[in-house]
Design brief:
The complex is a heterodimer of chains A (112) and B (114).
Chain A (H helix, E strand, L loop, with lengths): L3 E3 L3 E4 L5 E7 L5 E8 L3 E8 L6 E2 L6 E7 L2 E6 L8 E8 L6 E3 L3 E5 L1
Parallel strand pairs in A: 2-11
Antiparallel strand pairs in A: 1-3, 3-8, 4-5, 4-9, 5-6, 7-8, 9-10, 9-11
Chain B lengths: L3 E2 L4 E5 L4 E7 L6 E7 L6 E7 L4 E4 L2 E6 L4 E6 L8 E8 L1 E2 L2 E2 L2 E2 L3 E6 L1
Parallel strand pairs in B: 2-13
Antiparallel strand pairs in B: 1-3, 3-8, 4-5, 4-9, 6-7, 7-8, 9-12, 9-13, 10-11
Chain lengths: 112, 114
């Protein structure tokens, strides 16, 4: 079974802090994604990566950056957290195109 | 503008009956469709998929129907069980520039009453 782990289940940060959300997968999948889920808005894609050191913007990249130094690890960075970034953050991996995505358990981030 | 729409935010069904979850899309280039299920405090899990060359795909109690002319797909759960209570997301995608990025709907919350 594919295992996707996220560094924290719950996180509370203050406005202006730099926040790192880590995602690690153990199945050698090429593709990795970061989403945020908000009530009534579904899953919205922030960034994705098809390879090490490669990154592409999704639908809502503003205020976020990512890092993929190793194939198994994809990090989401909030350079200066704001209250409107309070959300559930979900990491996903995918073996290749036209395949299903495997999601981590999510990180519930609250920015005060 | 939403390219994948799940117009029913919630659905309530009696145990043993059929649950029908609907999804509409606007992009005629979409050629692959997936359904995910999400329980609270967990990440979504893949349920079933269908490619545009088919109009039906079945997996146990779950069947997905695709009507390309209407740009509509539906997920049927028969019979529904209380454990099926979850949020269901429809996703659609097409190849673009060598990549493939699915677009998700906003989800439908299914409640199956015992």
């Amino acid at each position: 079974d594919v295992k996707v782990t996220q560094s924290s289940r719950y996180l509370v940060k203050r406005t202006g802090e730099k926040v790192f959300l880590e995602c690690v997968q153990d199945m050698d999948h090429e593709n990795m994604f970061w989403y945020r889920q908000d009530p009534g808005l579904g899953l919205r894609l922030i960034y994705f990566s098809y390879d090490v050191k490669m990154k592409e913007k999704g639908d809502i990249p503003e205020g976020y950056s990512v890092s993929r130094e190793k194939k198994e690890r994809f990090s989401l960075i909030l350079e200066s957290a704001s209250t409107n970034q309070t959300s559930m953050y979900l990491c996903a991996t995918e073996r290749g195109s036209y395949n299903e995505q495997f999601f981590g358990p999510g990180t519930r981030l609250t920015v005060l | 503008d939403q390219q994948v729409k799940q117009n029913s935010p919630s659905l309530s069904v009696q145990e043993g009956r059929i649950s029908i979850l609907n999804c509409d899309y606007t992009n005629s280039m979409f050629d692959y469709f997936l359904w995910y299920k999400k329980y609270p405090a967990e990440g979504p899990t893949f349920l079933i998929s269908i490619s545009s060359i088919k109009d039906k795909n079945e997996d146990g109690r779950f069947t997905v129907f695709l009507n390309k002319s209407a740009k509509h797909l539906s997920l049927h759960i028969v019979p529904s069980q209380p454990g099926d209570s979850a949020v269901y997301f429809c996703a659609a995608g097409s190849p673009s520039g060598g990549s493939y990025i699915p677009t998700f709907g906003r989800g439908t919350s299914l409640i199956v009453h015992p």
